[in-house]
Specification:
- Helix 1 packs across helix 5 (about 130-155), helix 3 (about 85-115) runs antiparallel to helix 5 (about 130-155) and helix 9 (about 235-250) crosses helix 10 (about 255-280).
- Helices cover about 75% and strands about 0% of the residues.
- The relative contact order is 0.14.
- By secondary structure, it is mainly alpha-helical.
- It contains 10 helices and no strands.
Length: about 280
Amino acid sequence: MSRGESVTSPQALPRSAPSAPLLDEPRIGLRATVRHTGALARRNLLQIRQNPTSMTDALLMPIVLTGLFVFVFGGAIGAGGDRAQYTTFLIPGLMVILGMTIAMAVGVGVNDDFRTGVMDRFRTMPIARSSVLLAKVVVETGRMLVALTVLLLFGALLGFDVTGHWPGLLAAVALTAVFGTSLVWSFMLLGLTLRTAQAIQGLSVVVLTPLQFASSIFVPPATMPDWLQTFTRFNPLTHMADAARGLALGEGPVAGPVFWTLVWSAAITALTAPVAVAKFRTKT
């Protein structure tokens, strides 16, 4: 990295007052943006290394969620009280939940970075503004993959079996990461827009809770009232859960759910990513 493109650690800079919106930033090329993104992603990874507790949600949430639903609700929801059967149904759905959980934490983190002045320091550096957010997307996608790995390993201990469908399982993980990355952009936008972490968490719970439970993540939609089934069919979380099941288990439709998941992912990213970068540049 050249002298003009170097990224200085924000800890080495003195704390300063919030900077004014940077509307006249110089144009930075694609190669420089990639280098800046890599440097900032490395910084974020080093922070995780120095503070391993920041991986608690990625490592423990898969175990907590799986254990809760399998052992508390599995006997009642599974056909004939068959927990193993419910585990097989549940694990692909929980892949979606984990993507949402990791993404929501990003919004809170971005909001906290602005509150503590970290983002203001980044905006005084000669780096691409988008690289700050892109680095977060890269690292959080990695944390998402760690969480999915823990989920699948713990699920295997409880009877989740994908023998003969390994390529499909890998495709399901990749699709979940794509969908989860689009949610990361959405929550980063929330973190840049709302004033407090409590507001982000409150709004997220209000919006996501109905979407989670009015979907095919936890139970088949056929068990729901007709009016709720109509909503469930258009729910993007249903498309993602059905796509993960179809790919990982080789059961049910695949092409339709995968197509609509990709459409939702592209639409969410196209709508929120440019706005998030613009908001980052002008936020005071």
